[in-house]
Every structure is written in C-alpha cells, then in structure tokens.
User: What shape does this take?
Amino acid sequence: MSAAPSPKMETGIRCWGSVAPAPGGRLPDDLEPISEPLVGRRFRKIGRFIKLALSGAATCVRRSELERLPPERTGVFFGTGIGNTPDLSGFSEAVLGGPTEQVPSPIQFAHSIGNSGAFYVAQAFELSGPVLAISQEDVSFECALLAARDALAFGDVDYALVGGADVYCPDDAAQRQRMGLAPSSAVPLSEGSGWVLLERLAPTSAAVLGEVRVEQEDPRLALQRQCSVAEGGEPSALAISARLAEGSPALASAVPHARLMANRGAFPTESAVALCAFLEERAAAAGGLSDLFHSIGVSRDGFLGLVSARWAGRAA
Assistant: This one.
C-alpha cells in the first residue's frame, strides 16, 4: 500500500532535455543512449512524432548521471495535445481514400494510438514502472507534471520522466484547425519535445518544481499572482503560450519586471520546451539571469496551465 504524501515534500528537477526543430526540420541523428530493442530495422519504421519524443527524452536521461534509471521505480508521464497526427492521418487516408493510393500499414496504425510516444520512451530505457499518456490540449504537459508529482509524493516511484511533445503535420491550415486556431491567426506554428526528470528534492536536484495547477481563472489575475516579484526584488523569467499571447497581446505588461522568454512558435505542449530552455540558459549562465521561472498557457476551452520552478544552483 502506498504511503500518504507528505505535505512538506518538495519535488526536484534532476535534469532536462528538449528538441525544438523548425517544422519538418531534421531531428538529431544521435539518440544514444537508446537501448538495443530500438535500433536497426525497427527504429527506421518509427515516425516523426515518436522520434521527437525519444530525442527529447534521450537528451534528458543522458544528463541524469545515473548509470541506469531504476526500471521498477521510474515512471513515464507523457503529455501531448494533438498526438501522432502524421501516422494517424496517413493511416486514415489509406483506409478511407486520399490523394495517393497506398496500402494501410499495421505499424502506422499501432503508432497512431495516443500512448505510442510514452510506450516507446518506456521501452527505450527498459522501464517497467507506471506509464501514463495524457492529452488535455494545451495543458497536457501541466497535467503530466501533476500526475508525476503525486506519484512521487505517494511513494509509487523514485523518479518520474515527464515530457510533452507535439509534431507539426502539414499543411498550415490543417494544423491550425487541429489546434483550434483561426485560419487567419498570425501565430507561427512549431513543434517540439521537452522532458524533465523529477525526484524528491535532493542535492542532485538542479531546480525545484514549484506551483503546478490546471484550472479555470482570469488570465490576467493568474499572471499577476504567478509572476509576482520574489523577495529581494529578483525578477522572474516568464513564458506565455503563443495562444494566450495572441488572444491577449497586452498580457505581458501586467508583470513589467518579468523577462519575457522568446516565443518559439505555437504547439500545445510548448510549456515543456520553455521550461527546458529556462533551465538550459540558467545552467550556462555565470550570472545575470532570473532564478525563477513561471509559465502560463491556456487551452481552447479556457483552462489555464500554471507552472513555476526555482533554480537550485547545481550545474547539470
């Protein structure tokens, strides 16, 4: 039986990794350390969505300084807003008829299901702990963080590999429709994969995961509370989702002391890549950057995703 969570337990971020190529751009060739089951012929049959998830997860895991993630004590918590649309669209067109005649692929069908990314990540690192795939539009990564934090607090796992990934599937008009954006939207489209390895706060933690919430709230009030200036006047790094920034262009001015992180384009789990970008910048900096991170995003049905983190000073 799992123990009750400790209200004083803090969650540490041990390491991180992300991949954010231009839409359709080349992914990293080096996916080590990916275990033997995924190399060779089988790996060549994996589509872009799964490779994107694997690339981000592998970048994170190789930084963990662990010889191996403990298989039964590591969970995978994976959020995706729109899933593996390239394989799903390709299989659907083969079955229902599309612009080109093609034979339906059973491998493409298996890869099109919602948990395919989480499955391949768990298989790649030979993990047998909990594996959870979550799809809640633009707050999918935040929901994955909530589930992972609870699993750590209840003692179900010792490590939680948490990620968010979404892939661009042309053309632009179809992708905007999938994301609930207007055809005339000026928001640039993108894709990416961001992962963090969570643990109970320890000297090995590079950062501390702070507030994680998913709720319905006025964006301006949430932003003012989420990005309040820390004691001592230290400003926060702020990431606002592309969807929210487009809907409320003056929103960033609500927190004039925040350093607004550059927008890399819209995809539902962009907050995962934004968190990794903050950690990457902070680890490489000798000083002068914020030690606090806040992100705020919104789904098409009005749910806000709020995440905060604090740099702990360990260079990962």
Notes: The chain has two domains: 11-200, 207-311. The two ends are 34 Å apart (CA to CA). The domain at 11-200 is CATH 3.40.47.10 (Peroxisomal Thiolase; Chain A, domain 1). The longest strand covers residues 207-216.
